[in-house]
Amino acid sequence: xxxxxxxxxxxxxxxxxxxxxxxxxxxxxxxxxxxxxxxxxxxxxxxxxxxxxxxxxxxxxxxxxxxxxxxxxxxxxxxxxxxxxxxxxxxxxxxxxxxxxxxxxxxxxxxxxxxxxxxxxxxxxxxxxxxxxxxxxxxxxxxxxxxxxxxxxxxxxxxxxxxxxxxxxxxxxxxxxxxxxxxxxxxxxxxxxxxxxxxxxxxxxxxxxxxxxxxxxxxxxxxxxxxxxxxxxxxxxxxxxxxxxxxxxxxxxxxxxxxxxxxxxxxxxxxxxxxxxxxxxxxxxxxxxxxxxxxxxxxxxxxxxxxxxxxxxxxxxxxxxxxxxxxxxxxxxxxxxxxxxxxxxxxxxxxxxxxxxxxxxxxxxxxxxxxxxxxxxxxxxxxxxxxxxxxxxxxxxxxxxxxxxxxxxxxxxxxxxxxxxxxxxxxxxxxxxxxxxxxxxxxxxxxxxxxxxxxxxxxxxxxxxxxxxxxxxxxxxxxxxxxxxxxxxxxxxxxxxxxxxxxxxxxxxxxx
Length: 512
Prior knowledge:
By secondary structure, this protein is of the alpha/beta class. It is 31% helix and 23% strand.
């Protein structure tokens, strides 16, 4: 039988991912070590790592896979993004070694105009820059291939393997494969045809005993056009408890095997599809199809997320007036959600509304947002030209996702870069010094004075989202971070003094 598991949350400690996997009956699994939508380092202490290893061994759950940040782009021609991507991947493989996790999964990324061949060269070069610890293997994952993203064909995956001296494996994401039929179903080279046949064999093999295989590609032993490689590390395991079919839709990742002519191996299977319970729940609510709550979870504490109130009710009038007084067009709204504010703002300003969730972008389109785009608020410089907007609006908890002083400064610097010299910004914050701040869901005190945190994850219809980590700072700390990024805090509004929420208006500090 195949090892089958879910992508589980590390909220409250990485060992909790194992506990959740055991509840599902999973026999392997995948995790994020941090929110995949921000540049962030894994923060896993020695005791926490030891606890994970112990719980995984006791529960006989494994192997595990770490999925890298969505921001990593190995194919990029941009030196700054390459540096960030290599640094992020290095920290992921180091975290994997610390946790005794054998795999780190990564998408190749997009060549953004450099061309396929240069993009593959860039990816191989970036991977070779890693110092991968013994016992850890990097998996390059297939992709749907939208835009200039690479990895949608077996030839592109094999192209990286051929170029790279680092021993790599391949993760076949069947959801992405289905979305890219012309590139995965019509391989033209002998190497790609061999790869495709091997993947077809692997996905239908069902051994009678549970086992796992680590397929090492040794570049120097493979023919240049054969697409074959040697396989090693085949090991059988005793019988174990098997999961009931709790998972929706389709198997998305077939992980831990590689382009090989050996037909008698069993892949590790992780059921993931870039989990987005938040976006799906709001989409279903909008369509009138939601039958389950969106649940916020912090350990044993749970609450139902108030979708209608937060994302569909008309915004508060006084707040809109104050916000509008600081904004000019063209306007960028980041983390626009269901378009609650964009629908109002676009009546008076040219507005570009962005969100990282494809489900939420679809909801905004359906509700009539004129220009709704999928974009990451922490990659604005890679998405928009410098000086593209006069103003930026970051409503809700968006800025709080910049969960370190350096990340907050970088976020604010990105806002400064994509706005004009006389640009403005309005961002929301939550004051940790407010007497009611400890009542915020997922609240955590922080050793740093004037700082607090919120940590929780969300579930919807059995799907588990990544752990959300927020850093709360008051207006004074925001002023200091803004000054370092070329802004000054011109005004602060507290709509309801009974809550920690506040809004800050920022102007460029070099404007007199």
